[in-house]
Amino acid sequence: MKEKFARWHVLCLNYFKRDWKKILIWTLGLAAFSGGYIPPFVEISKGQGLIGLYETMRNPAMISMVGPTPITDPSNYTLGAMYSHMMLLFCGLFAMIISALHVTGHTRKEEELGLTEIVRSFQVGRQANSLAVLIETLGINLILALVTTLIMTVLKVESITVTGIVLFSLSLALAGMIGAVVALVMAQIMQTSTGATGSSMAIIGLLYILRGATDVSNQNLSMMNPMGWTYLTFPFTENNSLPIFIGIVFCVVLAIVAFALEGGRDMGAGYLPAIEGKANAKKSLLSVPGLFFRLNRGLIISWLVAFVVLGAAYGSIYGDMQVFLESNEIIKQMFTMTGVTIEESFTSVIMMVMIGMVGILPIAIVNKLYAEEERMHLSQLYATKITRSKLYWTTIVLSVISAIAGIVFAVIGLGGTAIVAMNGESTMTLATFMKAGFNYLPSTLFFVGLSAVVLGYVPKIGKAVYVYLGYSFALNYFGGMINLPEWFSKTAIQSWIPRMPASDFEVMPFVTITLISVAMILIGYTGYIRRDMQEGA
What we know:
By secondary structure, the chain is mainly alpha-helical. It has two domains: 1-269, no CATH class; 283-537, no CATH class. It contains 25 helices and no strands.
């Protein structure tokens, strides 16, 4: 047994040295996001702000997005209770995703690149690399918890107690480790790093969707969901530490399973057998569009299915909204005064979330072109009469078509389920949802253009576009709650677009952002056809 993990500590120390810049950005960035929003929340909690927010957050739609609260009396809804209620689930989700990507990148991906084979040629155990990466991820998440604790403690808010702060921070660390062990297991099962990453993200997404349903219908069922253990600790209210211990046991068990699976497979192999291709390729593969669609087919199909499922999960909540509205006089008066129905208000918010998710797909397709270039998979194409222009424009067109398809599938999932759930009690139609979805088309095209510029000039930082997408989402989601300055809110592209159907459609931002997106695509094209190829970089 010791031989399998021999000298893991040496590898772990080297990994900390190798990743110190990444660790610095990871811990400081996520800790600042997790704890740094306290001052703005202090401002919105003044007066009757907490009571109003409490009533708003009891909406089944909001519960499905951010989770429940154990508070039953509005007078007990303190700033600490509100902060953990609104922030903990999303912060934990980010920690989970980042940890999963880190583990997959340093295990399965390095195996594909041949780095693991080089490491194993030295006097290290066969599974030392996996253990070292897992321990490194544990260390990073503990550092994250420590930095978050320090930030929240320094701010010194009365209802945000030290006990609650520690529990909040440990919940983040637990979320990160759950993502890490899930990714480690999938890295053993799947044949490729792409498959391991995709399946890990799919599991995390499924856990989020399932907890949204159980939080609304039966909170006890959420305790059976690993993601539920990260926010049902209820910091600053019940301070329930039991989910932390359950989560630790889960992580240990899953880590043992991962090591057992790794011990039983050959390097570079997986437990899911690769599907044998046909003896003769289809004629569509003889064309660049056909080839590129085939390369991205799995990615496109999986995301389109995810959009439908996520939309259906949120759409199922619409049936409970009128019941909630009739039982809550304060919220009823709020929507009566604004002239916007609760369904329209929720649609305007959730559509921004859904189309933000859709933006991931075209970014991934554009980045895929550089990934194939880097792995020298395009060399044989370059040896023919196929030009760079052909490759570039094929990728751009495919990403735009995928973005449009993503919007359609997301809207059908959300709108179709919502209409069935409302059972004719609302005037909203599928066309209403479709208009609200395509209202955000320019923002999706903007991310295509931004990815194109990065591809043309600095392709190595292609993943930075995801960072801006996440930043834009966070700013739009939390911006209305914490009253950010308008100029700061406008740094997110979606903030320039009115939220339909709660607001009216505006032609100017729609056309302007579309033209800017087209300009960026053209700028990216000039850079791509002129820069050196970075094969094997």
